[in-house]
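hey m, so remember when u said the tokens were messed up on ur end? i reran from scratch. heres the input so u can diff it against urs
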Amino acid sequence: MLPSFKDMHIHLDKTLYADKWQAVRRAGGIKGMIELEQKVLPDMLKNSTYKAEKLIELLQSHGTGFARSHVNIEPTSKLDSLKNLEKALENKKASFGSELVAFPQHGLYYTDSLPYMKEAAKMDIDFIGGLDPTNVDGSIEKTIDTTVQLALDNNKGIDIHLHESGKSGHDTIDYLIKKVNENPGLEGKTFISHSFALATLDKNNLEATAEQLSNAQIGIISTIPFGKLIMPIPTLLKYNVNVMTGNDSIVDYWNTMGTGSVLQKANLAAQLYGQTSEFALSRMLRLATAGPIPLADNGVQQWPNAGDDADFILIDASCSAEAVSRISHVSSLIVKGNIIY
């Protein structure tokens, strides 16, 4: 028995899952992909509620009972992606928990998304999102200032996509740390998704930035990418930065590789960082659960406790380390004390 899993970065609102499979069609950088989305979104919206429900069921089959979903807010779909996803989540509310991020996928200013973001911020969402302020909007300060103000005005958190890996990425991280330090109410409620720029810092700058992120209580949401950029997750954890993971894209026009399993992400992290001992493997489970694991570092049981939510899985493994190392089969998902899968 283990804590149920949480997918902390996914796009439930615009999946091709449960529809005809197709490979990715790259459209020339982030702005090319924005142009592609403007063409395909109207048709995708026609059955996006149904596909979101089927995607939720896929996540549940892998032991996930909760997700943080980014949802498009832009001039093409306006608020329709949000409204359609809200219907799916309402239909699944007894068996699936969620947080929503209002996400200006086509740029806050690159397209005129701000009026729709202001509307969405007043609705039942949890975070104000953002996207690559330099590459898309052409300004770090203007975009981040607006994002921060929207969050403050509407008592929301912040979760921005930051793919920029060079100086603009470093500068965005530094500027967001500065803004959170100026507004302590955002501590513990601010996250940077992807944050590839951290993977390009030298050791000294990385450790200094990790300490600043920790002090500002800014979390990092990573999909555990592999290739040229290896995210420095062990260093972030060393400084007690809140690191979580998600599938991001399952089957869509951005990526077709997602399986729906965040346990697989924990396994990938263990492989990338050489976490092969029973102790080290068991620590990686925190990526799949977004925090809770059965034993503290000193071996004392810390989960489950009387009064905890009855959200857990039954998994075919002798211990959490085996579950991570073998991506063990999830036999059952229990949410709020009810058997869901």
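this time it looks ok to me. The chain has a mean pLDDT of 96. if urs says something different then somethings off w ur setup not the seq
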